Hints:
single chain; 10-stranded antiparallel sheet; Lipocalin; binds myristic acid
Amino acid sequence: TFNGNWKVDRSDNYEKFMEQMGINMVKRKLAAHDNLKITIEQTGDKFNVKENSTFRNLEIDFTLGIPFEYSLADGTELAGSWTMEGAMMKGVFNRKDNGKQLTTTRVVEGDELIQSYNYEGVDAKRIFKKC
Ligand code: MYR
């Protein structure tokens, strides 16, 4: 289950990913230490996600398979949806500014939640632990 409070523990290639996203160096340095925490509450196909970081606190509600809008901390707007593939959440989002696709997955392995990101050929991961 994805439910619970998760705190980022480490990241893999996240800096390169942000660079590919066009995020400037100052923001990338700040984002590398964003202390991201997410609280996930799934009820059937509905999710409530609370996001807390040094940048902002926000709450997102979505339903699997239903498109919604989401803005990144730098203001970049995305639209897309999450679906479930077996035990994996799969998100397909498009940037509103250039139409390009950002894909992401979430999977729980042991006591970790692993979120992967792909944008324009660059893959990254952020690994969360329960808190
Ligand atoms: C959620 O389930 O947490 C809300 C929806 C998330 C949508 C897509 C997430 C992509 C985040 C990419 C961060 C990259 C920053 C450069």
